[in-house]
Write a structure and sequence with these properties.
Number of strands: 0
Number of helices: 9
Strand content: under 5%
Helix content: 55-70%
Distance between the termini: 65 Å
Structural class: mainly alpha
Length: about 260
């Protein structure tokens, strides 16, 4: 029950932060506006005068992290909104035809980022390595695409399991992305960390599987809920008809002797 509530709460909280969007650019467009802004600012750091005397001070790592977290929050709202729009499509096969190319590209993107980051001493890196554009790009792709995967896994679990289960490379990519790259990242605040922990439960990649974990967005649960609602409605209708029939039978009738 607790896990059920957490899944629902997470989806509801983030969905209402969303803005209208679609799936285009969810995998490819990683931090482009934010990176452009930082790059423009960084160009001033070489000593360009601001007012003729003062020079622009460099952005601290703390400010870079806070700056990117704001972008990340906007990106998360777009991602969640897009996944919500896919979820609203009634036909399973139509949803699948959207989810599959998104996940295919997502896994390719994660794998390419992993290949680059395997050759990087991550422990010696600052949180936002603006002086190494290629590494920064790889990190941004991992942070943003793992978050998107989480939205898909929790909101469209049947589609994701079809494309993930039994694929060792894909499963290892998700485990690496969550456990090694995102859970400990300063970019992931508490609400995003909770999502990752739920994703680990959903994909059975958690170190300890919670027996109470339950995802209310599986197709089976949704269909069972819809069937139960229909049965309840039919039951109420039958009860209403029975009462109307009973009340009608109780209504006094005129006898011939009274006419």
């Amino acid at each position: 029950v607790a896990a059920f509530a957490v899944v629902v709460a997470f989806v509801v909280v983030v969905v209402f932060c969303g803005t209208a969007t679609n799936v285009d650019g969810l995998v490819f467009d990683v931090g482009s506006i934010w990176k452009k802004a930082v790059k423009t600012y960084s160009s001033w750091m070489g000593g360009t005068p601001v007012d003729g005397n003062m020079k622009t001070p460099p952005l601290s790592q703390e400010k870079l992290v806070e700056s990117y977290k704001k972008h990340f929050a906007i990106k998360r709202a777009e991602q969640v909104k897009a996944v919500e729009e896919i979820f609203e499509i009634p036909q399973f096969h139509k949803r699948f035809n959207i989810v599959k190319p998104v996940l295919d590209e997502l896994f390719r993107t994660l794998r390419n980022s992993q290949k680059h980051l395997e050759n990087v001493d991550l422990e010696s890196l600052p949180p936002i390595p603006t002086d190494d554009e290629e590494t920064l790009e790889a990190l941004l792709k991992v942070w943003e695409n793992i978050a998107l995967f989480g939205d898909l896994a929790l909101r469209l679990p049947d589609h994701v399991h079809t494309l993930l289960d039994g694929h060792e490379v894909r499963t290892e990519l998700i485990e690496w992305g969550i456990k090694e790259m995102c859970l400990s990242s300063p970019i992931y605040e508490e609400v995003h960390q909770k999502q990752l922990l739920l994703v680990l439960q959903e994909t059975k990649l958690a170190d300890e599987i919670d027996p109470s974990y339950f995802n209310p967005f599986t197709d089976k649960h949704i269909k069972d809920k819809q069937r139960a609602e229909r049965e309840q409605k039919e039951k109420l209708n039958k009860e209403l008809q029975r009462r109307l029939k009973y009340e009608k039978a109780k209504k006094p009738k005129l006898r011939k002797t009274e006419l």
